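queue> pop job 88
queue> type: inverse folding (structure -> sequence)
queue> payload:
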């Protein structure tokens, strides 16, 4: 398609496209895909979108797969942007929306990233894929690898929600449970991948999951008639969704679809695992590993994110914020959102509501502003979190 090269997000070193890469060969930081956007814009126009399929592949010219034969899809993307006026009235925000990613295949936003990553792995000749996961990324990899006819090797903490474990096993993945955190799972993949012939599709340790996630930004702009919201509140573990949206906004500006105005990006983490919140408060560009990470929101239990500097750069460039909320606040918010709007959201998505309340109380979000909360997954996958 229109990929020109891969570029290190930290040192800028250029890497050749159309070959398997993990991290930057020079500094070990994440690689990002770069496109010839002028060429892409010849066929990718706002008008052309009117006739395109309701999936993330409607933005085909700015996705990295060369051959349509290698696109691995289960219908991911184009999830609803739902107005939640009753919830908005409760918190004092007149125009409040929820982008509901639970309606993706595998019931989370991870479907977007894995659709892109598995498609590229297939195109570039990988046959055995491995990932450490707190749950939903594992389920997505298992499903998309099966769809592509590839093998998936998945490493998850022992206390991962049972629904995720069953999902992976029933879609044919090789599942290993580790007594530890996602960082321990990642270390196990790192130790074994060369000998086992695995390609590592960990968060931001390959360039393409973020490309799938960036379609969140494209969709949000399209669904809001090309006027971005004033604020986006996003639950943040590894942070690919936030990083991807920030990348999408720059691409759309270059395509001439939006102007230079950006939403304030708000990262929400669990108080029991808040490395980005702590680094933001301390004015640091890189986040130290968070000790003794613990939260019922398994997707937020990421004690150290390799894309930490990209998350923090986007927050600061947008004049945004980073906030932590407790597990009790998440569970209470799940019930409040469900009762008010009929959405059974994941704890990670629920975390956005108490964060919004903090921002409104502090005067950082005004009642007249347009605000989007992201629900990244389905509450039904977290039944252990809700008791009897």
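queue> result:
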């Amino acid at each position: 398609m229109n990929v020109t090269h891969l570029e290190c997000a930290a040192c800028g070193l250029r890497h050749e496209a159309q070959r398997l890469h993990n991290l930057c060969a020079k500094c070990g930081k994440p690689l990002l895909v770069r496109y010839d956007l002028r060429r892409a814009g010849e066929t990718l126009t706002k008008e052309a979108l009117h006739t395109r399929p309701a999936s993330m592949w409607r933005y085909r010219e700015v996705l990295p797969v060369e051959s349509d034969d290698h696109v691995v899809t289960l219908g991911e993307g184009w999830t609803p942007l739902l107005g939640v006026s009753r919830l908005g009235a409760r918190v004092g925000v007149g125009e409040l929306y929820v982008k509901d990613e639970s309606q993706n295949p595998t019931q989370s936003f991870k479907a977007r990233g894995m659709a892109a990553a598995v498609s590229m792995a297939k195109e570039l000749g990988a046959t055995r894929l491995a990932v450490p996961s707190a749950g939903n990324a594992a389920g997505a990899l298992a499903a998309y690898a099966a769809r592509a006819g590839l093998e998936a090797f998945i490493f998850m903490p022992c206390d991962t929600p049972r629904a995720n474990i069953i999902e992976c096993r029933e879609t044919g993945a090789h599942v290993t449970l580790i007594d530890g955190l996602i960082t321990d799972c990642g270390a196990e993949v790192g130790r074994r991948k060369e000998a086992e012939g695995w390609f590592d599709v960990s968060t931001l340790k390959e360039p393409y999951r973020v490309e799938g996630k960036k379609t969140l930004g494209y969709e949000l702009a399209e669904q809001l008639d090309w006027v971005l919201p004033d604020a986006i509140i996003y639950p943040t573990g590894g942070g690919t969704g936030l990083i991807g949206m920030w990348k999408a906004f720059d691409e759309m500006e270059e395509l001439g679809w939006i102007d230079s105005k950006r939403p304030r990006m708000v990262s929400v983490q669990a108080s029991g695992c808040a490395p980005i919140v702590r680094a933001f408060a301390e004015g640091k560009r890189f986040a130290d590993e968070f000790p003794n990470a613990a939260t019922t929101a398994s997707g937020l239990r990421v004690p150290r994110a390799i894309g930490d500097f990209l998350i923090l750069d986007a927050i600061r460039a947008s004049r945004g914020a980073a906030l932590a909320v407790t597990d009790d606040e998440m569970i209470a918010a799940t019930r409040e959102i469900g009762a008010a709007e009929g959405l059974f959201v994941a704890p990670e998505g629920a975390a956005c509501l108490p964060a919004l309340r903090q921002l409104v109380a502090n005067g950082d979000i005004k009642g007249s502003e347009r605000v989007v909360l992201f629900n990244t997954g389905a509450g039904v996958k977290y039944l252990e979190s809700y008791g009897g």
